[in-house]
Amino acid sequence: MTQISQPDQQFIKVSIWRGAGDKGGYETFDVPDQESQTILDLVSYIQQYIDPSLTYRFACRVGMCGSCAMMVNGVPRWTCRTHVKKITDKAGSLTIAPLRNLPVIKDLVVDMDVFFDKWVRAEAVHHPTRSIEQGVQPVSEDTAERQAANAAIECINCAVCYAACDVVASNPEYLGPAALNRAWSLVNDVRDGGREAILEAVSGTGGCHNCHSQQSCQKYCPNELNPTASIAGLKRETSKFALRNLLNPANKHNQGEPA
Amino acid sequence: MTEIERHDTDILILGSGGAGLFAALHAQKAAPDLKITLAVKGLIGKCGCTRMVQGGYNVALGGGDTVERHFMDTVIGGKWLPDQDMAWRLCSLAVERITELENEVGCFFDRNADGSLHQKAFAGQTADRTVHKGDLTGIEIISRLMEQVLRRPVEKLQEHRAIAFIPASGGDGLAGVLFIDMRTGKFRFVRAKTVLMSTGGGPTMYRYHTPSGDKTMDGLAMALRRGLPLRDMEMVQFHPTGLLAGDHTRMTGTVLEEGLRGAGGHLLNSYDDRFMFGYDARGERATRDVVSRGIYAEMRKSNASPNGGVYISMSHLGEDKVRALFPGMVKRCADSGFDLAAGKVEVVPTAHYFMGGVVVDIDTKTQMPGLYVAGEDAGGAHGSNRLGGNGVANSTVYGGVAGDVMGRDALKMGALREPDEGILQDEIARACRPFAKTGGDLNSLRRDLRQTMWDDVGVMRDAAGLKTGLQKLEQIKRDLYEIGVEDGVRAFNLTWHDWLNLDNLIEISQVIGEAALARENSRGAHFREDFPTEGDLDNSYFTLAKQIGDKLEVTREDVVFSIVRPGETILPEDAPETLVS
To answer: Is A3 a member of any domain?
Structure first.
């Protein structure tokens, strides 16, 4: 990154949230306008050339790690893949804040532990059914289940959906779109042995039935995934699962048919 | 005296790429009653480079392919410099590891119509060997590994930057690791019976580089300071097509995938000439090192694009076809303001992977009892050049091995070792050095370092340039020690960490330069214009660098051909040269 100082240089006004926890406010910086420039570049410029005490987080720079998501003009985005020119409003100004719905450690950095704790609480972790000695299980990619599993698989756990979700904002217990989306992928994975455990985990207090299908997760997912659809799938399966258990308690410990 | 928070564990792992996460899983299996701690410079599963793997995972799974064939490709690809025992273990254990990834970890890789794993051939392979998940294989591997680690009772120390290995007071091995808890800015010393260094090399000291921003050679610099021998340190792999968009953006240097050239992409200079055929009969389809040198030569001829590189152009294949074949690349370029499908995009060779590393045995053990190294931090498996698809195989294979061995060794150990308190205090003082100074320009120093490495220790090297580069590095190092960081809030003070990052990068840059000077031939990633041939294969040597007091010593060591000699093969006599159609 280089410092820029031409006489005809244009500048962008960038308001950045500074602080920790609930305490803080916005500070404004003038950053030189450049031809190819991302939101992450603006933030980096401020830390490197204007205020060395600014804190932010990034790693891969290319939309693979999900470390650099922030609220940009009120919307959760990957800052490394968001071009400044596509975002600045008519007045040419920008507001950057830490991701919503997560505790702020400092400035633009949030604590993502709660997001990942919920991932584990949703049983969104593969439950093995085969030993290494048995070799890789042949799986057709043409079946409806596998296509459902694949449709939900390319999540990089950036928490953009979690920040976008109004249900998370009003109900801190809610597991959130990312964890539930992963759970749905596993429910459809013929190799997974945890179907019952997952359906139980996602039907509890903070579970899938809290979702009001407002679809912010789908709208803002940078990978164009559809967690709302995944959650709808979980709602159907958990209802069937609950009904079956009610009608025939002996069923409770069977595997049930695939979704 | 600065306050230190003290903490104990049994097994300590540094890094959460493929090596670190696999080590955590295997250590937990090998020693379920021991305490395991995973310490990471960023967030678990997010920092590091395994996640960024696009291509896939090399493993011989039958259909004519064999472990022997994978091994021969690896040794030949590494130009006879790999440690053959390490390469053999990599190729043979990959078979078990890929099954473990599918069956136990839960990764799902692309399938053939019959439901078996789909495999494709990368450059330098004689079989369709690379298992993959589309072109985002690393995300699938790391996301699934991360889930498994998170659900286990593994202690997490996130945003903990390791700054020093602290030896035992008795001198009988490693006592533990000194960290800065980045979130609080405080020092934390963690004692452990066994420690894995799997922080990933990552040559980010070059003007153009691909690795994630958190990688700054921290592990190798820490190992160097404790006198551990490092091998193959001149071996920096350049990827030919890094995105080029100006020095002001972090997008610059990031990889545009190999497949673009494979599919028929053209490389054009500023006159729209397809220059690669002037350098190699295979044109754009030549290997990574050859294309990188072709582009670099073209740039030196002043045939460069506005930002100083060349162009990659795909549009002759048809805009829609390019969109269909490379949706991820087209979208990434579009997000950055470039049209890969219909326009042309500026590219430049970019430092990608570091083959050099700490000398280890096939059990990941180093010469320091208690310290183990796996993944990109370990030298030997790739020799002078890593094949595409062998990187993630290496980190997962040896990460698993490290977990097994560290678990067993920790179980056998009695008490934790007591640290050398003098060294502990010295290392804290070292980290606090910038607080004693004021002023100075860290950013222009970083720029100087990157430009020096690019110009003098880069794609093409010669003795005069390397000597100039080493002199400049010496000056850059002196300059760094005059630059201060304000000692205000130490909590999450990125500028302090920028300083520490530069310190490590400069130190390892000097080792790269000295090792490059010591290798007077051209092998794999290392090209000397004053010694352009590969030299005598039968008398191949590797470089060994060691810090002795204040002095860096580089020696040449004979390569031991423990399995196969140059010109020979372990494949059956009637084996075809290649199985790739």
So the answer is: no
The residue behind tokens 């404790």 is: B226
Residues A172-186, mean pLDDT to the nearest whole number: 98
Q: Which of B52, B53, B183, B335 would you mutate first to test chain A, the one with the most A CBs within 10 A?
A: B335
Residue B239 known to be catalytic = yes
Q: Which of A61, A92, A110 is the last residue of a domain?
A: A110
A31 vs chain B: nearest CA distance in angstroms?
12
Contact call for residues A16 and A46 (beta carbons, < 8 A): yes
Strand ranges for A42-121 from DSSP E: 69-72, 75-78, 93-97, 104-106, 109-110
pLDDT for position B337 = 86
Are A118 and A89 members of one domain?
no
Domain count of the fold of chain A: 2
Interface confidence (ipTM) of the complex: 0.96
Last residue of one domain, picked from the residues A110, A135, A170? A110
Per-residue confidence (pLDDT) for residue A4, from 0 to 100:
62
Partner-chain contact A116 B138, CB within 8 Å: no
Q: Is the dihedral of CA B297, B301, B302, B304 positive or negative?
A: negative
Q: Point out the residue among B43, B99, B495 whose CB comes nearest to the CB of A112.
A: B43
pTM over 0.90: yes
User: Are the C-beta atoms of residues A96 and A14 closer than 8 Å to each other?
Assistant: yes
By C-alpha distance, the chain A residue nearest B156 is: A113
Min Cα–Cα distance to chain A from B3, Å? 22
Cβ-Cβ contacts under 8 Å for B549 (sequence gap 6 or more): none
Q: Which residues constitute the domain of residue A234?
A: 113-253
- Structural domains of chain B ordered from first start: 238-352 (3.90.700.10), 429-539 (1.20.58.100)
CATH number at residue A216: 1.10.1060.10
